[in-house]
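In this supplementary section we document a worked example of the pipeline. Step one takes a protein sequence of length 341 as its only input; no multiple sequence alignment statistics are reported here. Step two produces a three-dimensional model, which step three serialises into C-alpha cells for compact storage. The input and output of this example are shown verbatim.
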Amino acid sequence: MNILITGATGNIGLEVLKQLASKNHRITVLARNSKKNIKLLRQFEGVKVIYGDITSPNAVNKACKNQDYAIHLAAIIPPFDSKNQVLAKKVNLEGTRNIIRGLEKLSPNCFLIFSSSVTVYGDRLKTPRISVNDPIQTTKWDKYGQAKIDSENLIKNSTLNWTIYRLNAIMGIGNHKLSKILFHVPLNTLMEIATVDDTARAFVNSIGKKKELSKHIFNLGGGELCVITYQDFLNRAFRAFGLGSASFPYKTFAEANFHCGIYADGNDLEEILSFRADTIETYFDQFNGSVPKFQRAITRPFGPLAKKLLCLMSEPRKAFKTKNKDLVLRFFGEHNKDLFF
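The serialised model returned by step three reads:
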C-alpha cells in the first residue's frame, strides 16, 4: 500500500512510522523542514520524506499523489496552540483542508484516517461516560477542540472515504515535560488513558480495514483497565519522581471546563483493530522504569520546594487570588462565581 503520514515526528506519529516501517508498505511522510525532524526521519530507510509545511497547498499536493491511505495526525496541541492561535488554526484546520483537497484531486480513492480528540465532547466531569453519538459541546475556551470539530465536518463533507478516531488521554513514556495544562484538569476527572504504543497500533492496524471503518467515527481509549482519576494519576507520577503525593494549596487546580472521561463504546474499535496491549499498571511500570533511581533519590529531599515552584505555574490559582472574573469562570465554572465575587 501507498501510505501518507502527517505529523510523523510527533509522539504518536513517530510510533506509527516505526510500526509501519517494519511492514511492506511504501510510506510517504510530510514533515516541516527542521533540524530536529531531519534527524528523526533520517533513521527510516526507504521512507519518502517531503519537507514542507502542511499550510502550503503546494507541499501538501506533492505528498498526496497516488496514496491508498492517509493517516492525518499533524496538529499543534495544547498548551502550545494557545501561544499562537493564528498559526494553530492554520495548521489544525486549514492544514486538514489542504490534505482533503490534495487527496480529492490527486488520490480520490484514498482512505483518510483522522486523529480527532475527546475535547469535542467538552466538560464531562459530571457525566464521564461518553458515547460517540453524544452531543458535541466543546467549551468556548477550547480552540483546539473547536478546530477538531470543524475538521471532522470538513472530512464528512468531502468526497473521500474516511474514518475518524476521537482520542482520549494519550500518555507517553520518557517525555516528562511539565506545562500549565497540568493544573487545568480537575482532580476528580475520570480519565481513560491510552498509551502511545496502543494508539499507534490502532492506526497501523487500520490498514486493510476500509470496509469495517468506512465513514464511521470511533472513540479510541485504552479500555476499562486504563481508567484512573486524575488525582490518582498525579500521585503515582509524582511518587515516581520522588516528589511524594501531588499535594497543592487550595484552588491550585481547575474545577470545570476541561475534558476527558470514560468511553462507553470504546470496545467497538478494539473489536475491529485489536490494538490494546497496555493497562494502567503496565503504563506505570514503564513510567517508573523511565525515571532513574538516582534522580528519584536526589529529588526526594526537594519535593516540597519543587511543588511550591510548580504551584507558581497554576493559572487557576492566579485567577482565584486575583479574582479575575473571566478566568474564574473559565477554571471554576459559572456555578462557583459567587465564591469569588
